[in-house]
């Protein structure tokens, strides 16, 4: 093979390989990976693909946000319909208020039960949760930052010792 043909062949492979890798990731059945995602009002997160959905809603998002006036963002999980959310466990502290955690690693590895479907009406930094994704796997999440316009969530697969 001539040097020119080798260069053309290598360039062709370099153009095709990223698409093959992307397709393999999109169809990967192993579930969510770790990462950090940011969303605003009317956006949602897909923790399996790492996508930010705009608009986000119960049909296309594992977790989505809506504006809640001056209180900031309200967070809800997706589900079969608007009244049947997938499980999410918001960890509670004293008085039933959401517990805060200094780091993602400090959030407990406790699975969410089917009955855990409560919305969070005021997202604040350092709240921790576990939710069930649209694929049925559970992830652990931590609100790294929050204000009235956006939340940044660090997440990773739930690792239980059961």
Can you characterise this structure?
- The protein is built from 1 helix and 11 strands, in the order αβββββββββββ.
- The chain has 162 residues and is of the alpha+beta class.
- The protein folds into 2 domains: 30 residues; 127 residues, no CATH class.
- The protein has a 5-stranded antiparallel β-sheet, with no helix packed on it.
- The protein is globular.
Write a brief caption for the model.
With 162 residues, the chain is α+β, with helices and mostly antiparallel strands. The protein has one helix spanning 3-26, and strands at residues 35-40, 44-46, 51-53, 63-67, 73-77, 79-81, 84-85, 88-90, 128-132, 138-146, 150-157. Strands 1-11-10-9-8 form a five-stranded antiparallel β-sheet, with no helix packed on it.
